[in-house]
Amino acid sequence: MKRLSILALAGLAACTPTLGLDPTPHASDPVCAQMLMATPGEIGGFTRVNTTSQSTTAWADGSSFRCGLDQPGPSTDRCITVGGIDWLSLDSGDERIPDNGGDDTWTFLSYGRQPTVEIVITTDAVGAGAVTDVLAQFSSALSIVEPQRECLALVDAPLSVEDDSD
Q1: Count of CB atoms situated within 10 Å of the CB of 103
Q2: What is the pLDDT along the chain (166 residues), one digit of tens a residue?
Q3: Would you put residue 118 in left (φ > 0), alpha (ψ -120 to 50) or beta?
Q4: Given CB 3.0 to 4.6 Å as the disulfide criterion, which of 77, 90, 150, 152 pairs with 94?
């Protein structure tokens, strides 16, 4: 009977969808494993699915979480703060958007925390709510590490002074 149960489980596992995600340069960072364990099991009513790369997870709608990207430097990208976490919101034509991003998705990079995380959220996961509601579900995972930098409002950015001593 035990053998039959194992075979039945193996058959069910074969039906579970797998989302192909590109690996990240720092996926072996042990903090990524801690963050991954703290991600929500479900977003927007969609359950977790298998992925093809270390330090990644995804949900049945195509939303994804990848940890271990290179930390972005100072940026003019739109930055939002949700649940105490700063996120760069990537525009649709940005070359950093992964293959599963694009139409009907939002892509965010964590800012000021190492390792860097990328989250792709689909419109299906958001439903009738706001994208920030879904993003807030990842705050506890990213709170595992302390921020090293933070986003600044335009009024807080340092002024550059031109040298007129020609």
Answers
A1: 7
A2: 333 333 333 344 456 688 899 999 999 999 999 999 999 999 999 999 999 999 999 999 999 999 999 999 888 889 999 999 999 999 888 898 888 887 899 999 999 999 999 999 999 999 989 999 999 999 999 999 999 999 886 555 455 555 555 5
A3: beta
A4: 90
What is the Cα 90 distance to its own chain's centre? 12
Closest CA to 34 of 142, 138, 147: 142
Nearest to 49 by CA among 19, 9, 8: 19
Domains of the chain, residue spans: 15-152
CA distance 91 to 15: 34
Token pair listed for 9: 């489980």
Its pTM stands at: 0.81
Characterize 26-60 residue by residue with b for buried, 16 or more Cβ atoms within 10 angstroms of its Cβ, and e for exposed: bbebebbeebbeebeeebbebebbebebbbbbbbb
